[in-house]
Amino acid sequence: MNLEIITPDKAIYSGEVVLVQLPGLDGLFEILNNHAPMIAALGKGKVKVHDSEKNELFFDINGGVLEVLKNKVLVLAE
Question: What's the CA gap between 48 and 46, in Å, rounded?
């Protein structure tokens, strides 16, 4: 699936991933390939990404919004 993490200043990440773990307002949750469409509010924390080469990447965010649609994950982060 394709992931984009965007802040008001710049795009932090864009690429193919296997898994995304995000800090929701009620706790952590994960998005995998073929996830159902959803929109969610994000809290402060770390976004964990497993890319297609099995590398584990971390990004700090201060909240934001997530959209999942047709194997595309868009994170608008603060």
Answer: 6
